[in-house]
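Quick one: co-fold with pyridoxal-5'-phosphate.
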Amino acid sequence: MNSLSPIPPDLAGAVLSIDLSAIQKNWRYLNSHAGKSECGAAVKGNAYGLGIAPVAKALWQAGCRSFFVARPMEGEELREILPGATIFVLDGLFPGQAEFYAQHNLLPALISIEEAREWAAFGRIYGRKLPCAIHVDTGINRLGFSLPEYAGLLADTATMRDMNVTLLMSHLACADDPPHPLNAKQRDAFNVARSKLPGVPASLANSSGIFLGKDYAHDLVRPGIALYGGNPTSALANPMQAVACLEGAIMQTRNVETGETVGYGATWQARRETRIAVLGAGYKDGVPRSLSSRESNSPPQVFVGGRRCPIIGRVSMDMMVIDVTDLHLPVRRGDRAEILGPNILIDEAASWAGTISYELLTRLGSRYARLYSEPDSDGMT
Ligand SMILES: *Cc1c(COP(=O)(O)O)cnc(C)c1O
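Sure, here it is.
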């Protein structure tokens, strides 16, 4: 483990360990599942909160060459880290910013005729047909050319002539729900769009899309969450390795009598004499307040001393409380409890908190120590 964090683990209270070799294993696994298709990586949002620089370098070492960010600023940052990467900006071309994209060799995923005309016009000034992707909307109704607008673009020969379209892409709305009829509908619409730009590489699948079958893989797949340990096969066991491990340190243990309550609002009441432990991690550290205890058969839990213990009372800004009565071994001040990691998977914790793994990861706070395990350097193991 090496620390890229200015915060020493012993002083931070909470520690976030990021397993770079697990990210590499996940990329290789997805690459092997994508058949002949190239496997890229979505690294927007600071690599889903896990740190763009170490994550992008580890992916590059594993063999990844095509990267997707959301914003031009994220692209600029990634360009410094990976001079040789192909970098697509998913939010398209920002007005008046073509020169910025060209300077940093960023490929906008163009979403409208306006953007395409601006990119082609800048290419004319620049003296070079600049590379880009075309993003068609096949049914998610979010970003991209509608199919009639796409037909309009193809008919605009002056614009098409003055740019270099290196990728045709679209995005699935329901890939995490394989039987959903919109998947096949989007795939078929995408195939019609592809037939109008023969020879241009195509990309449709995100993480879950890779598991919808060969006819979703096309030429390039764009996984994000699965690289970071999220389950891309919602109905099946998670084939991915856990990447992020968030641990809180125990600050104090104490006994609570039957009938007493714990935490703000006195929302949890002891039904027996209870041994509690107070962990130094709270919502400031990215532990959602919605992980607070509630009456249910599957209460939110943490992992400590070799087993799961329920979270009790409300998660507060800097701390949370767990019930360690049933632990066989005593836990002590300074011991760490896993809030997310190999034993508490991000999808499970997210569902307790009423959210998704994406939001959980991207909201992880900045107050803990971040420890990165060394990536595999040869890329072959
Ligand atoms: C974020 C994103 C991805 C990656 O999605 P995951 O579900 O995290 O695999 C792929 N394509 C586009 C357009 C995206 O915005």
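If it helps, The mean pLDDT is 95.
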